[in-house]
Hints:
mainly alpha, 3 domains, Fun_TF
Amino acid sequence: MATRPFFDLDFITQTGNAPNDEATQTRIRKHVMRDVGRLTRKDGSIRSLQWELIVPEILEHEPQSGLYEPADPTPAVGFSTASPISRDNALGRLFPSHVNNSQREQRVSIVDRLGAGRLDPFIKYPIEMTNQTYQLVDDFFDDRHGNLAPFRDTYVRPALAYVKVSNSLLPAMGTWFPVGLNDAAAFYQVLSNAALNVNNVRHNTTGAESVHSLKYHTKALILVRKRISDLGEATSDGLISTICGFACYKHGVGDHGAWKIHMKALEDLIRLRGGTETLNTNKYLRLLLFCNDLSGSAIDDVEPRFPLPLLFLPTQPVWSNTPVPFQLHRISVLWRLKYPERCKIMDLIEDIMRFSGYVANSAVQTFGRIYKDLEFSFQNLIPLVHRLLSISAMALDIEDDGSIIQEAVRLGYLLYIAGIKRIFGVIGIGSKAHPQKLCSLLKQINMNWEEFGLIRSWCLAMGAMEALGDDKMWFLESLEESLRYQGFETLEQGEQLLRNFGWYDEAHTHLYRHTIRWKPTDSTSGLDKAS
């Protein structure tokens, strides 16, 4: 039987008005709170939360279809009892005319969500933020879908490095966002590039400007015009990074003429500043400059304006001790004896094959995870492309057989490496220039390749896999003739010979076998459509 609680009552006799002295008031308050405190200290008391957590507006919207696939529902965690939240397309908030009206109920754990925020709430932005700019920043920090992260992790898929959805070359390891945070104009351009990418992904297109990308691009331009006349401002990190953003934007929309103008401006500003070495104190900006330079140079097949950022690359690559194939080693010895003044190209070829061998072995050991290692591809694959483009500065001498073979090999290996880039998630070739130049060179030159006949056959095979239309047909016919001269009756039989000079199974075997069955009505080149 429960007993009634014992209360120590204190009787107060009062006549007339209640005393207002401080001692009496204190005594009254203590008396009132005594039993309240005793009850709250009783063991086993369970008190529920008396407030409601409000879900931030940005979390109330889950992409439904088209741009993103919906994320898996988050399981309920612990004491979370959140009711289902209706979520529509977050990007539709940026582009209201394209909002998907279909909605999907999804249970979300508030506790889990709040503990996994994508944005640092303490970031100090260089501009006054709005709902739209916050949503853009949040979207390109959303790694679940992988579409906007390039504008945060600028390397990204260099393609020579073109990101598939935006055709932009993006440098490495979280570059755009930290660079943008240091300057208002640069940050506006980061938002412009991000909005451009959103628009391209949403419409499954390339280079489509939007009202939002133009708005932020214009704001960046206005700020730059106000500052460019001041030499100190013009050579500052902030303004140089903004112009890098302009170049990336114009490359993304396919305006190569404007890209050249911006790169020439960068060249002049960096010369006034004292050279690229003065940028080494700002790693992110140096990487931005490198990748912007490389992307456009690849389209024109010209030497890049700026050198490799050697300070941020490994001094001795992990693949440097990988052996080269025996047949390639034999050809290398012959080449060095016959053309000792042209050893640079053979050094580069051997490095490419060492890299290929290392990647092939690592892919087996890591079950393909190496292909997702963006830092590895940036530090190892992209510098090889830079070296191939740099050799293009050497003048082609039509009267010199060594010069002709060197140019054919250089173009052939640009096409060879395109296949490997695809495996790393980037577009292989960004223009028709490389297969067209190789086709034109081999058509015009009538020379005896002698002991380097394998090189010619191999170059024809690389061209056939990447060319389009009539050029593709010419490559195939010439390859068949070249292989027959070396004792192979069919293109299928010649595959084993071609493997001796440069071959990456995962990139070239299927593509080669698909190519030799090609019909003139086909329009694709390799696995990409050249832009």
